[in-house]
Design brief:
heterodimer, A: mainly alpha, 13 helices, B: about 450 residues, alpha+beta, MetI-like fold, Jelly Rolls, 2 domains
Chain lengths: ~350, ~450
Amino acid sequence: MLKYLAKRIALLFVTLIVAMYLTIIIANAGGLIDNILKAQLRYEIASSLARAPGWSQLNEEEQRKIIDERLQAAIQAKGLDRPFLERTFRYLVDALTLNLGRALFITSASGSKTVSDIIIERLPQTVLLFTTGTILYSIIGLLIGLYMARRPGGFFDKAFSVFAIVTQVIPPWFFGILFIMVFAYYLGVTPFGGMVSVPPPRDPLGYVLDIAYHMALPLFTWIFSLFGAWAYIARNLIVQIAEEDFVNTAKAKGLPENMVMRRHVLRPSLPPIITVISLSLIASWQGAIITETVFNWPGLGTLFYQAINSLDAPVVIGLTVIYAYLLVATVLILDLIYSILDPRIRSGRV
Amino acid sequence: MSRPGGLQDVVDAVLRSKTGIIGLSILIAITVLSTLALVYVPFDVAREWNNPSFWQYNPRLALPSWVNTFISGKFPETIIISNDSFRKYSYYLDIAGLKYCILEAEFLYPYKDFPSELRLSLYVDTEGAFVTIRWIQPSGVDIIIWKGSFKQGLNTVYISRQIDVREYIRDSLKRLNLTVPSMVNPEVILFMDNSVAHSEFTPVNGRYKVRVEAVSSDPYADIKAELIVYGKVYGLAGTDDKRRDLFVGLVWGAPIALAFGLLAAVATNFIQTLVGSLSAWYGGLIDEVIQRITDVYMIIPFLPILITISVIYRIDIWTLLIVVVGLSLFGGATKTARSMTFQIMGEQYIEAAISYGASRRRILFLYILPRLMPYTMANIVLSVPGYVFLEAALSVLGLGDPMMPTWGKIISDAYSGGAVVHGLWWWILLPSALIILTAISFAFIGLALDKVVNPRLRER
């Protein structure tokens, strides 16, 4: 089990580095990161010099000369004059340690302009909405999948399969736009977007209820668009395993139906289900970007949208780095669960 | 895979199942729609789509015309009164040294709802002229809309929007001892009966007259006029906030969406299948390297990296296509193709091929890959909707192709233009319906193919 985990962790670490390095190469191919860093250095030098005594007595020519000299020194000290490859490795280390630099335009609610502050402030909202959503749709989907697998080929099974196929090809954000129109505009039962009312309620209970009220529609959308596909996958896996010889043997032995289901069908179908979850979670983390934008939910996705529209490159790059971390962490957690569930790995035979 | 499946099987499976036929018919309908694009729209859409003057004769945010068949009180169509419809009288008064030009036009207004906007354009062919514009209702009430001097060239009176127009109308009504509704737009006042106070407004049907009187000191002065009474319905799909005919955008979006989705799906699936089969067939170090790269590729944050590229390099839709393919060289299909190749490699005809000395490349391309084709076909069909929506998603984020009217672009314009918040349903539902229909057609065909592609083979 440890050997399996060690292998997976090594792979995930390589993935993390590749994803970040790719982002850095893409962003810096046109010299973008270099320019951003140089502009930030110049800004820092100029603002620290502006406070120096006697600075305002100097004329512009002299001021610029001094700034340029200091800038050259700072560029050398930071290693910005090194060759391209060496620089990108420096940036890679920065990215891995979440040293993401300063945003150009966007400010965090607490007033910080550091990219990591801005992102960390948004992270809980995204995790709140999508973890809740994912847990709920997995449970609902699994239950429906089990129900469908009981009578494969029945009316409910067929009807739900069509529903699953249709919802599977349409992304959640798309349902989002349609649902906002129906539930917020025509029926008026939900807000159009956002996370809290303006102004937010004062008392803690009211605040929580207000968030729940705003969260209802995005959560419903998220579950609605994903639980069908999920039930379909679970159903297929269960139906397949239920046809295996060892299940027939168990039934022939006269074991009760429920016990056969639990021990002989559900247990062996769990590991492949975990594999599917892990892939669908990767896709849904990314789908969350646009879903959040549509619902104006103040998480990472909306931040992405803001960064794109204000052309705030450091934030865009920082978010890509954070998403690499998020995806790797998701896969790592699921790998852990997988290694506990799969007896072959648990006993170290693989 | 008990027997070699071929492309014939794929076609048969689609035609034999109900879902396959439904899917195929929808797809054919959309293809017909996209060929209609070329017939219905003879102009260069990519160039005119963002050119406001091209669309100036269309109403803003108009409903589709077919809405009128479902309601009793009909929404007005746009009425354009061109210069030719104006009767023109002109005379020169020698004593005063003044030239008078009078243009008069009459039109029938049969609708039960007010127009959305009024616009009068005057082309003055002299140094300058003093112009009075009058509006004569069917009851004979004569309202002065505007009075003042116009410079040489094209002058436009935005009757619905200009503040001074409202002042003139109010003054006229006061002089005629009629009720002056406060806070009501000119396009409403001009079309209603102002002799009594109203609780609700309905337009008076009948023949309206517009009279333009111009006075100039130039004996050769001339004037041309054009009145547009913008309606509330337009075309088959309505218009957006920039007066663009959405039907044009929708039919043009179809070939773009299909081309983008199909090209991306075909390229990524073929490459992934090829790579997977190569990996299994050549084995050893190649297999190991390809498998590890695939593992890495499957976890990489695809969309954020794509967004970063779009933000930094501002790419158009076809460059985007190349980038998407580049980011999907390895993936799920690689893994499946690999495990299927392993299975095929154990079969006797491969052994036979090896024994009679077929080259390794020949076996891979002629004996193994064709066997993978039904599976690849199914995958292609199933992944098309994903790419169609990917383009739409990037448009919603503001990263779409700025010139082309794609479905995603229209939805994104509608979303940012407040269509959801103001209930402008046609602007958002019609492109959405088309995207959903396209996606469903592929999904249904894919469902039919599920029977060819044994689900057992999809699991590792």
